[in-house]
Write a structure and sequence with these properties.
mainly alpha; Triger factor/SurA peptide-binding fold
Length: 199
């Protein structure tokens, strides 16, 4: 991640040289504010923090969409993340995946590479035997597939592996491809954003 030492009035961040403008961030800020009652009482410092967060979300969206372009991925066949998937992600990644339909296709590529072994599934099942009734109560998915306890555990393990792999990859891509203006940089924290940080 690079930080520009000169303030720019035209862009707040650049991904592969493509700008994220103040207008884009302001539009998203209004959109977020319109959905959130607590936003009405936000302090100026909280709004600035939210703007920085939105800049990182938009930059992550651009990286995901660019990766989808490289591999010819489309949204078709890749539904929105299920709730457990979203809860496994850090806030920036979760927000970016929800804003980037083809970015979710990138997530599913990582997911397909993250299938656990039978021994991993058995180990989790043994360690969490008290949850056996919960695993068995999941029933059928929206796509009609029956979810057995073993399948449910395998799905959750795969999601966790995929999220970890994707966040590691994104952190490297962000550092290599994103240039931030001083306004967008998180003061005192050169490692920001923390993709896996939960809010």
């Amino acid at each position: 991640m690079q930080t520009d030492t000169h303030t720019s009035s035209s862009w707040l961040a650049r991904v592969d040289g493509q700008p994220i403008t103040a207008e884009e961030v302001d539009e998203l800020l209004v959109e977020v504010g319109g959905r959130s009652r607590p936003f009405e009482t936000a302090t100026p410092s909280q709004v600035r923090l939210l703007r920085r967060w939105l800049i990182h979300v938009l930059a992550t969206v651009q990286i995901l969409e660019s990766e989808a372009d490289v591999h010819g991925l489309s949204y078709c066949g890749h539904p929105a993340l299920d709730l457990p998937d979203a809860l496994s992600c850090g806030s920036i990644l979760a927000a970016a995946l929800r804003r980037a339909p083809r970015g979710r296709a990138v997530f599913h590529v990582f997911l397909e590479r993250s299938q656990p072994t039978a021994s991993q599934v058995s180990a989790v099942q043994e360690q969490n035997s008290a949850l056996h009734g919960w695993w068995g109560s999941l029933g059928s998915r929206s796509d009609g597939r029956v979810v057995t306890p073993e399948t449910a555990i395998a799905m959750l393990i795969a999601v966790n592996i995929a999220v970890e792999s994707l966040t590691d990859w994104l952190a490297g891509e962000f550092d290599r491809r994103v240039e931030l203006s001083p306004e967008a940089a998180h003061p005192g924290d050169p490692s920001y954003p923390e993709f896996t940080h939960h809010h």
